[in-house]
Write a structure and sequence with these properties.
Elements (H helix, E strand, L loop, with lengths): L1 H29 L22 H15 L14 H27 L8 H16 L1 H18 L6 H7 L1 H17 L5 H13 L2 E2 L4 E2 L4 E2 L6 E2 L4 E2 L4 E2 L4 E3 L20 E2 L4 E2 L4 E3 L3 E2 L4 E2 L4 E2 L8 E2 L1 H11 L4
Parallel strand pairs: 1-4, 2-5, 3-6, 4-7, 5-8, 6-9, 7-10, 8-11, 9-12, 10-13, 12-14
């Protein structure tokens, strides 16, 4: 009986030793230097810490409470304390923005040093300019909230849209990210819009240009690509895609960056659920695009494009729309 216990204990010890050795080998491989893989641990060892998804998300929620005081971040706001509320939150969040912007700049910095004075200085100036743009962002968002109220018969007020509508959440994140995008901040704008994407199902690239009074109703599944240009008073419904038709490749077979590949949507356009518009086409002012339409060419102002219209053109012309 005693020999059996010793044998059993020996088996357990060997299993534990094998487990530790296997784990050690795995850790060594994951931390190998010079493997050149994207996302490898060593690819960022010479730089500042990476931006934090959690901190960036918290940063945006603080900014949301600054843009809409009383709606988010506490409801005990009055005329007597609103300046203190906004000022204290901005004072706190500006340091967070500076740190995350600096990390974003260092993410693409070529200096490969632990402390890059230029990245730090740039982060301070970018943050100053970004915060100075917040009143303009809020003014744009006020038009978006009003558009939601006017565009949805179920909305009882613009306040309800601010509180409840996923479209307003996604548009708020987009408009903040868009300002940072134009200040040439790497990675952080995408983190901001992808945070909204994860909680609303609405995917807006921060590089898209979107005018005032923009309304996304319901919203789930909406995709707006990087080079999309949207005018004023445009309304989209769920499942709409404003995407690219193809990706031109360079001589090495890699997608060519920085070229126009997404639609232009002019003022007053309405695009109903499930419609897909691809390529650098123009949807003329005041056009209505019906549900589930697939469109890869420009249409003139005032058009009414439906599936029946497309089927008729296919029949008459023998070509797609």
């Amino acid at each position: 009986m005693t020999d059996h216990k010793h044998h059993h204990r020996g088996d357990i010890a060997r299993e534990n030793s094998n487990r530790v050795e296997s784990l050690t080998r795995t850790v060594d491989k994951l931390c190998e230097v010079g493997n050149g893989e994207a996302g490898s641990a060593v690819s960022q060892l010479r730089k500042q810490p990476l931006p934090s998804r959690i901190v960036v998300a918290e940063m945006i929620e603080t900014l949301r409470s600054v843009l809409f005081p009383g709606y988010f971040g506490g409801s005990d706001i009055s005329e007597d304390n609103i300046r203190f509320h906004v000022g204290s939150r901005l004072d706190k969040v500006q340091h967070v923005i500076e740190e995350q912007v600096k990390r974003g700049l260092c993410f693409t910095c070529t200096q490969h040093v632990t402390q890059c004075p230029q990245c730090s200085a740039n982060a301070v100036e970018i943050t100053r300019v970004f915060i100075s743009k917040l009143p303009e962002v809020r003014a744009m968002l006020a038009t978006d909230a009003q558009a939601a109220y006017e565009g949805d018969p179920a909305a009882t007020s613009a306040d309800e849209a601010i509180f409840c509508y996923p479209g307003m959440t996604a548009i708020t994140n987009y408009r903040l990210a868009h300002e940072l995008f134009h200040l040439d901040v790497p990675i952080i704008p995408r983190m901001i819009t992808e945070h909204a994407h994860s909680i609303t199902g609405i995917d807006i690239h921060p590089g898209a240009e979107i005018g005032k009074s923009f309304f996304i109703d319901h919203g789930t599944g909406v995709v707006i690509g990087e080079t999309t240009v949207i005018g004023e008073n445009v309304r989209l419904y769920q499942g709409v895609t404003l995407g690219a038709k193809s990706f031109p490749l360079d001589e090495d077979g890699n997608p060519i960056k920085g070229i126009k590949r997404h639609p232009n949507v002019e003022d007053g356009v309405v695009i109903y659920s499930g419609a897909t518009i691809l390529g650098a086409v123009t949807i003329g002012k005041g056009t209505s695009i019906g549900g589930n339409v697939w469109l890869t060419r420009s249409v003139p102002p005032g058009s009414r494009i439906t599936q029946a219209h497309i089927r008729r053109e296919l029949f008459e012309n023998g070509s797609g729309i």
